[in-house]
Amino acid sequence: MESLNHRQGGVSALNRMPRYKLPLSQRVYLIAIFKGMMVTAKHFFRNVFNPKGMPLINYPEEKRAYSPRFRGLQILTVKKNGEIRCTACMLCATACPADCIHITAGEHPDPKVEKYPVEFNIDMLRCVFCGMCEEACPVDAIRMGPNYELASFERSDFIYTKEDLVRLGNYTVSNVQDH
Amino acid sequence: MAEASTANIKLTINGKVVEVPKGTTVFEAAAKDGQFIPHYCYHQDLSIAGVCRMCMVEIEGQPKMQISCNLPATEGMVVKTQTDKVKDTVKNVLELHLINHPLDCPICDKAGECKLQDFYRDHGLYESRMEREEKVHKPKAVDIGTIVLDAERCILCTRCVRFTEEVTKTHELGIQNRGDRAELGTYDGKPLRNDYTGNLADICPVGALTAKDFRFRQRVWFLETEDTVCTRCAQGCNTIASVNPKTKKLFRVEPRRNPEVNKSWICDTGRWEYHYVYEKRISEPVMKDHGRTMPGTWHAAFQEMHGTVVANAGRVLVALSTQLTNEELYDLLTQFKALGVSNYTWIVDEAVARERTPYDGILKHRDRTPNTLGFEKLTAAMGVKWIEQSPAKEKLRRGDFDALWLLGVEGFEPSGVDNLLSATAENTSVVALATNAGRWLDRCRWVLPYASAFERSGTVMNAMGRLQRLHASLPWQQASRDGHALALGVTRGDDRTPLEDFRGPNLVPETVKLFGGVPVEWRKFDRLGVEVGQVGGNQWNR
Questions:
Q1: Which run of H or of E encompasses B303?
Q2: Does the reported pTM lie above 0.90?
């Protein structure tokens, strides 16, 4: 009963709202339609007589050039010898506000390298492209890359492993070399 | 400190008058007053070395700075720890420590709890004056047994060397060479061979010694800690359990300082046996019928146990493990008494159950259960008659019992279980509430998963009669339940009753009253425990 009363009260309150009376120029809406069609026509004729000025690209074939600071899918860099640069320090995972980086660290056979990521997965369904991981990284191992075409049919495809991230980063060599 | 040196002296530290017993060092006087002085080599439970030079303080009337850790306080001494001169000295000392430090914090497991990081944040130079390119390189990631040694990161505080000399008396570690070539190492490169190696990773203020078990498994800042007590032997060392709150997984057990029980140490067994929480764990109730094993439910188990006890309570033998907390024992004994059960025995290695001192002279007991003395004292206080294992075995062999319930068995190789099972007649149905799978469970009709010591709360009493608090750091793993849930389930005969949360902690006042009360504040008891029995009367008011 209580909820019914509430709803009825709501309806009656709406009914009591004063109606806004439109002026004549708006009630005869043909004027507004004509104004709108003028804008459409202006663009149509401009594109017909000057097709090169059209602000369009044929997307999958043509692509826009983005700034180098663009924050797309992360890439993992490598050392000069081709090994992954990441030391599994977990600072990116710590900095990540979306909690999308999952690293499993392991012992590297070379005692000078000591620690490396056995697993490095980024869950792109969680990633918010904030770039905090890139900022936190002490060895330039993770960067926000240029890739933005991340659509897929499977949820599992959005978990990018370290191999994926190195490959999609075109084996970029890190700015920080060691030893 | 009860002898002639009781005379107190007064000194001034940073304008504050502090009164300490004669013979106290300036460092300890400051610590007593809650004033922190940065340090690396000083450790409460080790001798004083005075090698790190970080604890420099200014004494009025003395031209040179002094190390406070090795400076006895004298009457009327005026100490300053916050002057520019002191800060400048600490900064310079820290600069020296860091000359050859590799600064590989991203790889270093100590990062986050490293004293170099901590003090550099407070006293650092921040702008390096180093012009030399190459640092002195020393061996890295050297395997010395359970510990990994990184000589480059070492700041030569010698805490570990003193530990092996003074605590374990095994003398494995030493500083070799001199000057900036001085490096920490084991003699002849032999691995460590004592039972307390894990402590080396704890006392190392930097990342030179890291425990293999914990290495790279988790960053320390992801972990949350819970103060608890080790249940792997009768010593009851105070510990800290570190759990990742996101995954609810246990990663590390560390000692917690309690000068009365374990100082700052814990044995390797207690430290690294926490793996039983995950390995070979019984995940769900299992029933065995005519040789066939099938998954069961708690409901069916409770129904059957209730049926047995209602039919003839006199023909049930309840064997209670000394792994059970006092609260679980209290709950089980009161509930079973109400059901008419009168035959009780205990599960413990009886040959060593009444040993009261560590066999190695440090911490380790032969009795591998935490609450043997608590069992004896609690049953005495509750007036419960129970029989020792040999008469119990005799009765079992005669076939006096239809059912044997083994409750609260924990760990991979529980002691005392085989002893009872070997005497059990063929037609006796055995129910086991246990944590880990083992061969002995083949004999049981019901195998019920038991919550481990990291999943239960309550009190346990160690071999010295010290009552200590056990705190749960994990939720019950998989389908496991604790003794409280079992007592309730068997009484009701069903699994429909909602479980009462915090049954264990809520019963603590009850059991503490039975032990005669604890004569200290609740908070202190919670943290460090207290020896009960010697002091009479219930002075404990919450």
A1: helix B298-311
A2: no
